Amino acid sequence: MKYTITHRTLYHYSSGVALCHNQAWLLPREASWQCCRPSRITIQPRPALSVERQDFFGNRVLYFAIQDIHQRLEVTLVTEVQVLDTRPFGPSSPSMAWEQAGKMLREDPDPEIIEARLFVLASPFVSLHPTFREYAEPSFPPERPLLEAVADLNRRINQEFTYDPHFTTTATPLGEVLSERRGVCQDFAHLGIACLRALGLAARYVSGYLETIPPPGQPRLVGADASHAWLAVYVPGTGWAEF
């Protein structure tokens, strides 16, 4: 399936801005099931400097600086992506017990597994507080297959939390999301990651787009598709499974 994506970000400032520095994580990345065509990013006003680089995790990042006074900033990405039906496995695939996955992450010297250990650690948005482990434990009884356990955790978050776009900001502590059972997709993805890392498993944050399927007989509406956030868990010896 081929997709043409237009992602437009617009900022209006209350007063003129003389200088701004920005980093944009907008460019799609290659995967075994995803082929990326050349992308185009247009920026208004035109930046004085624009440089693309790759971050530590392999994401494509565009740095740009605007040095003219402006009250409006518009960043538009146009890209084409081909998604192949060749993902190695998914949430319903068979997998090893979750304890075995954690043991391999701690002890196996395989370079790929060593690299995945980075995703067991705490990060600025994900702490390893014991409350996250406590929330996750009902989904992780002894010897339960890893992907089955993660799917159950994912189901519980979906059923027990309320989607509330007015409850959180980027500064809302994850513990508050857990205690109040409210948030948005970014919060729920970070919550799932915190739960998995608290159990010694490798999990990472993924952002992308959801294709909106219109009701039968209705036309597809341009602009109806939404950006989204979800998580991926690492299965040693196999790779990353997304939820």
Your description of this structure?
The protein is α+β, with helices and mostly antiparallel strands. The chain has two domains: 2-83, Sandwich (Immunoglobulin-like), CATH 2.60.40; 98-242, C8orf32 fold (Roll). The protein is 24% helix and 34% strand. It is built from six helices and twelve strands. The protein has helices at residues 98-107, 111-116, 130-136, 146-160, 174-180, 185-198; strands spanning 2-17, 20-24, 34-36, 40-44, 49-54, 60-66, 70-83, 162-163, 182-183, 203-210, 226-235, 239-242. The strands form four sheets. Strands 1, 3, 4 and 7 form a four-stranded antiparallel β-sheet that branches. A three-stranded antiparallel β-sheet has the order 2-6-5, with no helix packed on it. Strands 10-11-12 form a three-stranded antiparallel β-sheet. Helix 5 (174-180) links the parallel strand 8 (162-163) and strand 9 (182-183). Helix 3 packs across helix 6 (185-198). The protein starts with a strand and ends with a strand.
Q: SSE layout and pairings?
A:
Layout: E1 2-17, E2 20-24, E3 34-36, E4 40-44, E5 49-54, E6 60-66, E7 70-83, H1 98-107, H2 111-116, H3 130-136, H4 146-160, E8 162-163, H5 174-180, E9 182-183, H6 185-198, E10 203-210, E11 226-235, E12 239-242
List keywords for this structure.
12 strands; 2 domains; globular; 6 helices; 4-stranded antiparallel β-sheet; 243 residues; single chain; 3-stranded antiparallel β-sheet; C8orf32 fold; alpha+beta; Immunoglobulin-like
- Give the C-level CATH assignment of the largest domain: Alpha Beta
The count of DSSP E runs of length 2 or more, i.e. the number of strands, is: 12
Helical percentage: 10-25%
CATH topology description of the largest domain: C8orf32 fold
Q: In the CATH hierarchy, what is the architecture of the largest domain at level 2?
A: Roll
**How would you characterize the largest beta sheet?**
4 strands, antiparallel
Unreliable spans: none
- Tell me the quaternary state: single chain
Head-to-tail CA distance between termini: 20 Å
